[in-house]
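quick one, 373 residues, struct below
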Amino acid sequence: MIHGTKLPGSTAAPPLSQRRLIWLRFKRHRVALLSAAFIIPLYVATLFVEFLAPFSPDVTNSIYVYAPPQTLHLFQTTAGGVVRFAPYVNGYRSEVDTEAMRRIFIVDESVRVPIRLFVRGQPYRLFGLFEADIHLFGSLDPSQSIFLLGADRLGRDVLSRVIYAGRTSLSVGLIGVLFSLVIGVVLGGISGYYGGWVDNLIQRIIEFTRSLPTIPLWLGLAAALPLSWSPIQVYFVISVILSLVGWTTLARVVRGRFLAIRREDYITAAYAMGCRPWRIIFFHMLPSMYSHIIAAVTLAIPNMILAETALSFLGLGLRPPVISWGVLLQDAQSVRVIASAPWMLAPAFVIVISILALNFIGDGLRDAADPYR
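---
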């Protein structure tokens, strides 16, 4: 075999690239592959939340305060006994509970609200550029509301708010990891390449950062944010705060790998040829550990999402009118609300599933990138 080609009469297969080997090992991790099939469409869906959500997240309806979820029926039986695909939900009949002094909702099976695909609804701007009013699904009658996950204290559709909140929570994890990736790779690379007092100084900074209690740190930083700031400014600063706390793990991964390979022959040859340190770090050493960095980044995203959720849930992170999964969970802080409207915990289940899927993907990538497995 010469240069990866088969000689005449040879039965040996051509050598596989590192990328191909990683993919083949990752495919054997069935749970990670299934998780990727869930997470990738979820991230793609964040680009089209206006189209996917049946309603705007801020539309209120005082008639449907804490309306329970409606059961989705996919098939209907016609008068002739033929079963056909025709999704619908049953309507509500509301009554007033004089003892509890609240409105209660009873399913009215005599009222059927048909659900159709690609219906016209509330207008929106897709990507902030294109005006449209087509939604993935909805009711043809604007007076009929559809609450597949129920309604909140202002009569807003919980499903639409969860979909919109996914864009914020998932993107905060990506942006925070991006910042921590830059800081971790630069400082970890410098620490592992130079060693000596530079390594000692950066390691002491890492140890100091890791020793800080996160909750008091978040309390202080969140209290320092001016109330006059716009939601975009708060969103950006929260992402930076999360990255300043989460870069240390990646920096140590990069530093350990650099210490292991800085005496390799190809690194010594690059140094002897007069390559500058930054070129050796970014063009010779980093490419040899891309797979390790990808695995570390994938495992760091769930931590960022959980940190943002915890901050927003405690009222220290994102605040309304910004919608995130943590902000939505603020409405479920009361035991009375959970007892009477348990569907308000829907964002928590989405968070759990997303975090588990991201962790499984990171696990699979870490195993696939390990050449000794």
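The CA atoms of residues 104 and 197 lie 69 Å apart.
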